[in-house]
Structures are given as C-alpha cells and as structure tokens.
C-alpha cells in the first residue's frame, strides 16, 4: 500500500504453513506526482485505487524477498503473495493533505483453528492450522480491516471520532489511541473465522452474527499525552508523555463506559508525574465479565423490542466466540465458563429473534439449537398471551417450534406445553395445526383439546383432508370409534391416500430411530387394509418412505418378528409390482414375493389375513404375472386332494414363473423346500425346468407322475426346433409304457389316443 505523499517502510511478514504472507509498504511504487504540487500551482491528484488479491500485483509495486537468516535452500519454498494494494487520494477540501493520508499501524492478525466451540474435532497435536487472516491499517481518521486468506475483502471500516495516532488489533478488540484517549472498538474477526471454520453457520443448524454488522465503540478512557500503544496477551501497554503546558487542571479519573471493576490501571510511575514519560499497563477485562456486563445492559432494552438489543447481544456473543477461538490462552476453568456463556448468549439471541418481528426472525431456530435449550425450556421462556389472547406470537417463535416439531426430536412435551403449542398455532398459523399434532413431541396432547381446535378449523374455512384425518386419529385416541368412522367415511379413499402423503406421520412415526405405527395405522390394518397398503404405496411413490422402512413398518404393525412376513406386506409387494415403482429393483421384488409364496407352500401355511388381490386380479392387472400355461392347470386338477387354501399362493407363483420378466435361474436354489412329492411342488419344478428348456427331463417326470398332462404339455411346449422331441422321445416312450401295461397302462393308452387324434386333426 502506498500513501500518496508520505512514505513509510514498515515490513510486516508473517509465516504460516510454509508460506510467507506479506504486505509491505514499499518505496518502489512511490508516485512523484504530488511532488509537483509544490512547484506548480495546480493540484494533480491521483485517483484512489484499491486492488484486491492477485490483482494487486498490477499495482507496479515490486516486492523482493530477502534471505537474511534463511539458508538458500529454504527460501525457495517461500513466495510472495500479493494481497492488497490501496492508494488514497488526499482530501483536497480539508487542505491538510499530508496529515490526512498518513498511514499507520499496519498489522496482520492470524486466527488459528483450535478448540473452537463449534468444532468437535480433537486436535491432538499442538499443531495450529491457520483459519483466517486479517489485515488492518489505519489513517488518522479511519481504519480499515480486511479479511484475507481465501479471498481478500474489506470487512470493516472504523471512523474515529478524533485523530488517531496508533492502533492495535486483537481477535476481540481494536484499540486506538488519540492524543488523550484510549478507545476500544468491536471487531468482526471471530464472525468471519466462524464462517471459515464451520460450513453449517448460516443454516438452520447454526448461526453467527453477520460480518457486515456495524462495528461500535465499546469504551473510551482518558489518558494524557498518549504516544504509543502495544498489546501483549490481556494487557495493553501505553506510553504517554505529558507536555507541561498541556497538562489540564486535575482531570477526572479515567472514565469507562461499561466497566468499573474490570479494568485495573497499574501505575508504574508515581501518579502525579512531572512532565515526562509514563508507562501504563492496562489489563483488559476478561471476556466473560465484559460479556456479562453487556447482557445486563441489554436487559434495559428487554421490554422495548428493538434492534439494539440484538446488536448488543450479538456483540457480546462475538466476544465470547473470539475468546473461545483463542483457546490456547485459556485456563480450563475459564474455558468452561466461556462455553457456558456461549450457550447462554445463543439462548438470549434466540429469545430476541423469537420475540422481535424482524425479517431475520428465522434465526431464532439456529440460535436456540446452539443454546442447547430443550423445546420445553424455550416454551417456558416465551411470554404467554393474556387470557383474552391479546398477545400475538411472533414469527420467530412459531418458526422455531414449527421446525422443531417437524424434526421428530425425541423430546416429548408435557400435556400443558402441548396445549400451549396448539393454542399458539391456532392463533398464528392455523393451517399448520394438523402437522403440529402429528409430531411425536406432541404425543401427550389431550385429544379432546386437539379435537376442539381442529373443529374450529373446520368452521373457520381451513377444513382440509388433513384436518379430517387428524380428527379421525384424535377420535381414536379419545376412544370414540363412531366419530372415527364418520370422519374416515366423509372422504373418498383417494383423498385419504393424498392426506397420508401430505402427512406420513399420521401413519408412521419414528422414535429413537425406531419405526412406530400410529394408532390410526393399527386401526386401518383391521378395518381398511386396502387403504393402508395404498397409502404406504403412495408414500413410496412420493419418496416419503424407503423400501426397507415400509417393510419394517408392516412387520412392526402386524406384530411379526424380523423373519416372519405378514400377508399385508405381501400385499404391498404385489401392489408395488402392479404399480411399477421406479426405484424398486424388479428382480429383488420377484425374489421377495416368490420366496414368500414358496415358504408358505412348503410349510402349508395359509396367509395370516385374506390377500387383497387374487391371482386372477394380478394376472389381469400386471404384466409381470403371466397367464398360467394350460398344461399346468391339467396337472393341478389331477390332484383331487389338494388343499384349497394354498391354491392362491400356488397360482401366483406359477403365474410369476410364466411371466415374461422373471429370472428363472435365480430362483432355482430356493425351490428346494418345495417338495416334488406334492403335485403343487411338482408343477413349480416342472415349470421352472421347462422355462430353462429342459424338456426331456420334464417329459420323463410327467410320464411318470401325471400322464394326463403330457399331451397338453407337448402341445404347448414342443414347438419349432423342439418338435423333433415328439418323434424321438415322446412317442417311443408312450408306446413303450403302453406295452409294459401295469397300473398306469390305461392312462398311457388314453394319452396315446389323444396324441393320435391330435396328430390327425393337425394333418
Ligand atoms: C517522476 O518520475 C518519472 C519516472 O517515473 C520521471 O520521468 C519524472 O521526471 C518524475 N517527476 C518528477 C517531478 O520528479
Ligand atoms: C412449518 O414447517 C413446514 C415444514 O417444514 C413448512 O412447510 C411450513 O412453511 C412451516 N411454517 C411456518 C409458519 O414456519
Ligand atoms: C429346444 O429349442 C431351443 C431353441 O428354441 C434349443 O436351444 C434347445 O436346444 C432345444 N431343445 C432340445 C431338447 O432340442
């Protein structure tokens, strides 16, 4: 940076992670134009210029690294990075050219990533990682603070009330001296660093006061003849020189805006000094103490809902945040105290944003989250309306509660608090009421209370399918089955399905990661299983519930353990196949269905409930279920002893195997439990082998077990290239068996006759 006329040459270098970040005042870029000022009568001023980041290399200022003290090997790892070039134009109107643009107090301030409140990563080693870097410099009446590292940006501008002499920047404060004052300003370094550190800042999870928030003067202390300032840890060291003529008559002791206790001024020289040099060490007040004073001060704003309260609390919050970032300097006790203050300040900010009707009221949510306060605690802090309902609930609180209830937190509100929440939403956001009532946190709501508010919705024009369903659920809770039935009957099924899609929690709740069916779901299971399956399918179609979740929902609902599959779940799978859900892997679904059909067939286990769809329904509705081959029906009808209760499962399985999309080979290993001793089992095995084109084996089996089916089988299967099997295999076998006679001789003979008549009719 080059200041027009006055040249200074401080070098400021700072090494981090093998890089030298450097900003230098340099003689190289001096403009000599102002020199013309003296010789000519006009003033030619250069325009002010600001170049940020790499662009600043265009300034023409050249910087060279000197290798003093470094060996040549290491120097090659260092390079120059241009950060900032700023040229000020003298203010012509003020006519104090030289003084107004005299730069001073260039400083780079690093902030490291250690022990911040928001990061839970444990840094084992002492190795510090640079999080952010700030660059400060000052003119007599104004100071500039830039954010460096990723990009270079102007962060804050400090306008001093009087001409400054020198300034020092710390993570918490900017201290500036004028000839008679030590001034202290707030800084935004921790706000910027927090954003570097945590990508979740500025989401619904976390917040931090904005970097752009106005800076403010915290305090002014009087000193006489201030000459220089520097800073070490929590101490400000001041050098003063009182000019004898300038000493005013006994001044009042140093005045502080905020604190009387915290600042100890230690006089290292006799208090009443003659004209001469004095050295002062001022201990800065501890962040926690200052924080507390600021919070106390903010209480004066509490009743008047103003932005100032938020500003003050934000300053206090940043102060604590900055101290926590500087954690290496903290005692363990101090750190705990700061963390406590941090949470507390988040709670205060949450309160402010929840009460004040600002465009930022949604910030109540992240601040309350960071505060660690439970929903019940927040609700208890909030002011309650008067009995006549004259107090309006502000958006921030509604936003926070609405969001928290939507998140299915494990916290359960008491009956009283739940009632207050319902009352709040009734007043502020009536449309949201059904959703609110479906939150697991509202489990303890008195159903009569809820019903009253829901009925009010109906009469005030907010009636909706959700209100109907929520009322049906509340009626169940009240044990009023008639009312429940009436509510459910008042709308067509399609509408009800839509309602469940809008609010899945009417059916399915999650508590501590567990899926819990609601009372309403349990009731539907018994009374309207079709609606229940259609609704869950609707949820899946709309990505409101995953495949596994739906499976475990039905298992829990039907009280089955992990390995037993209720018929309702089979109904859902069949419905999924019919609906052609895009996300479902078809073969996986086939596998689930066939293994269930097979399992039940092999165990002679009828379905636990009446299936919603028959095999005929499925064949008609779904292309994956194929028409069952005619010979299969001949085969099955030959078994007069078959138990009719499994025929549905058997038909569905056969139909799937006859269908076009089924991967037969994959099912073979799972057919084993299905014994070929029964005709049912036999039919499935022969079907599979047929689909794998193992015709000869099938012919043998059928001839042995069910000669009646052999001709229909041959008619259906032995076509085209396989027609030779008629001659080479089937005919000789039949003739041979007829010749042998025996028990089945007659059957073979009739088959042979059937065969001959078919052949005749064909030729
Ligand atoms: C200013 O500098 C330029 C070269 O950068 C030189 O040519 C010129 O004479 C200088 N002017 C004055 C007034 O010194
Ligand atoms: C409440 O939350 C729901 C779901 O997140 C959202 O759609 C709705 O707009 C919210 N309402 C209010 C008032 O915040
Ligand atoms: C039946 O025909 C298929 C082609 O459709 C052929 O791959 C297969 O080998 C034939 N089987 C016999 C036993 O001839």
From TrEMBL:
One GO cellular component term: BLOC-2 complex
Domain of life: Eukaryota
Record domain BLOC-2 complex member HPS3 N-terminal: where: 29-270
Domain BLOC-2 complex member HPS3 C-terminal: 289-753
Pfam families: HPS3_C, HPS3_N
InterPro entries: HPS3, HPS3_C, HPS3_N
Protein name from the UniProt record: HPS3 biosis of lysosomal organelles complex 2 subunit 1
Species whose genome carries this gene: Panthera tigris altaica (Siberian tiger)
């Amino acid at each position: 940076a080059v200041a027009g006329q006055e040249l200074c040459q401080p070098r400021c270098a700072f090494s981090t992670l093998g890089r030298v970040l450097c900003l230098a005042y340099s003689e190289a870029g001096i403009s000599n134009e102002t020199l013309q000022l003296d010789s000519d009568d006009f003033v030619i001023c250069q325009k002010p210029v600001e170049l940020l980041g790499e662009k600043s290399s265009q300034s023409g200022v050249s910087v060279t690294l000197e290798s003093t003290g470094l060996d040549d090997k290491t120097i090659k790892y260092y390079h120059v990075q241009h950060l900032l070039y700023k040229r000020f134009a003298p203010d012509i109107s003020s006519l104090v050219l030289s003084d107004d643009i005299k730069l001073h107090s260039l400083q780079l301030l690093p902030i490291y990533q250690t022990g911040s409140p928001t990061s839970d990563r444990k840094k084992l080693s002492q190795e510090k990682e640079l999080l952010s870097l700030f660059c400060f410099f000052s003119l007599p009446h104004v100071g500039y603070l830039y954010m460096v590292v990723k990009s270079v940006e102007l962060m804050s501008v400090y306008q001093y009330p009087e001409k400054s002499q020198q300034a020092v920047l710390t993570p918490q404060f900017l201290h500036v001296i004028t000839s008679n004052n030590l001034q202290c300003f707030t800084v935004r370094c921790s706000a910027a660093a927090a954003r570097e550190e945590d990508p979740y800042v500025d989401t619904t999870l976390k917040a931090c006061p904005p970097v752009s928030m106005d800076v403010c003067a915290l305090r002014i202390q009087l000193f006489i003849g201030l000459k220089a300032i520097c800073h070490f840890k929590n101490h400000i060291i001041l050098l003063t020189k009182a000019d004898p003529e300038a000493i005013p008559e006994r001044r009042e002791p140093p005045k502080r805006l905020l604190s009387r206790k915290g600042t100890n001024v230690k006089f290292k020289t006799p208090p009443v000094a003659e004209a001469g040099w004095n050295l002062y060490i001022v201990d800065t007040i501890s962040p926690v103490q200052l924080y507390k004073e600021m919070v106390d001060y903010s209480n004066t704003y509490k009743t008047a809902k103003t932005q100032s309260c938020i500003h003050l609390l934000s300053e206090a919050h940043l102060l604590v945040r900055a101290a926590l970032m500087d954690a290496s300097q903290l005692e363990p006790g101090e750190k705990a105290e700061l963390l406590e203050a941090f949470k507390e300040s988040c709670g205060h900010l949450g309160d402010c944003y929840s009460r004040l009707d600002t465009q930022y009221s949604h910030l109540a949510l992240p601040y309350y989250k960071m505060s660690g306060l439970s929903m019940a605690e927040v609700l208890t802090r909030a002011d309650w309306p008067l009995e006549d309902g004259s107090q309006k609930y502000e958006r921030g609180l509604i936003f926070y509660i609405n969001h928290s209830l939507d998140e299915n937190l494990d916290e359960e509100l008491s009956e009283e608090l739940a009632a207050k929440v319902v009352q709040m939403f009734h007043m502020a956001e009536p449309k949201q009421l059904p959703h609110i009532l479906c939150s697991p946190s509202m489990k303890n709501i008195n159903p009569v209370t809820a019903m009253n508010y829901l009925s009010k919705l109906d009469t005030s024009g907010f009636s909706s399918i959700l209100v109907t369903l929520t009322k049906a659920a509340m009626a169940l809770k009240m044990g009023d089955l008639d009312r429940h039935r009436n509510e459910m009957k008042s709308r067509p099924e399609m509408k009800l399905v839509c309602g469940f899609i809008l609010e899945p929690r009417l059916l399915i709740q999650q508590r501590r990661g567990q899926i819990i069916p609601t009372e309403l779901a349990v009731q539907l299971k018994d009374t309207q299983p079709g609606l229940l399956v259609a609704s869950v399918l609707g949820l899946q179609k709309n990505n409101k519930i995953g495949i596994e979740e739906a499976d475990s929902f039905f298992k829990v609902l039907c009280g089955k353990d992990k390995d037993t599959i209720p018929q309702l779940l089979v109904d859902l799978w069949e419905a999924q196949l019919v609906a052609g859900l895009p996300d479902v892997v078809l073969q996986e679904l086939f596998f689930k269905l066939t293994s269930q059909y097979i399992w039940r067939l092999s165990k002679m286990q009828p379905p636990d409930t009446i299936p919603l769809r028959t095999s005929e329904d499925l064949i008609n509705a779904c292309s994956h279920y194929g028409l069952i081959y005619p010979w299969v029906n001949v085969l099955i009808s030959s078994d007069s002893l078959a138990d009719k209760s499994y025929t549905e499962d058997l038909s569905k399985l056969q139909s799937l195997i006859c269908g076009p999309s089924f991967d037969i080979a994959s099912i073979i290993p799972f057919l084993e439990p299905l014994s070929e001793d029964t005709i049912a089992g036999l039919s499935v095995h022969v079907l599979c082998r047929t689909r794998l084109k193992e015709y000869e084996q099938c012919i043998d089996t059928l001839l042995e077990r069910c000669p009646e089916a052999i001709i229909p089988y041959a008619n259906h299967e032995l076509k085209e290239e396989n027609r030779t099997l008629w001659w080479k295999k089937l005919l000789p076998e039949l003739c041979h068996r007829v010749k042998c006679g025996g028990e089945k001789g007659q059957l073979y003979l009739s088959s042979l006759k059937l065969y001959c008549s078919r052949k005749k009719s064909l030729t």
